[in-house]
Design brief:
This protein is α/β, with parallel strands linked by helices. The protein has one domain: Rossmann fold. Helix content is 41%, strand content 16%. The chain contains four helices and five strands, in the order αβαββαβαβ. The protein has a three-stranded parallel sheet, with helices on one face. Helix 2 links the parallel strand 1 and strand 2. Helix 1 packs across helix 2.
């Protein structure tokens, strides 16, 4: 099954529970790649989305218009470049360095670090453009 097929299946399941957006999505690692494809499908259907999540660098989803807030794990091995993310959105890209390893992004310390920054970002983006951003972790 491809990421595109998985995203279509997930979107069918999401719409069974909530027929219309805006939808709020969250993904980490591979789940982020699926979120990116879901975001594309939602926008392609002319719907609004409220997405939070992470896209996998190896998957190149179709471009979206949402701005991206990128949390970069400074302890990443190998080092990750921001450039691929710039091809995903026609919106703004903001990168925040974190003092964590990617595999530790499910800890309370990381949540305490990221949570307030996501909240501030969501508030500023809503005020600036009414387009809700995609939040990603790499």
């Amino acid at each position: 099954m491809t990421i595109q097929e998985l995203a279509r299946d997930y979107l069918d399941a999401i719409r069974a529970a909530q027929p219309f957006g805006p939808y709020r999505l969250l993904g980490w690692s591979f789940g982020g790649a699926v979120c990116a494809e879901l975001a594309h499908l939602i926008e392609a259907a002319g719907e609004k989305m409220d997405t939070s999540g992470e896209m996998m660098r190896k998957h190149q989803p179709a471009p979206i218009t949402a701005p991206i807030l990128l949390f970069h794990a400074t302890e990443a091995t190998p080092a990750v470049e921001t450039r691929p993310w710039q091809t995903i959105t026609t919106g703004r890209l903001v990168r925040i360095e974190t003092p964590f390893r990617h595999e530790n992004f499910d800890t309370d310390d990381v949540a305490a670090f990221i949570g307030p920054r996501v909240n501030d970002w969501l508030q500023s983006e809503r005020a600036a453009s009414c387009q809700l951003p995609l939040v990603t972790i790499e």
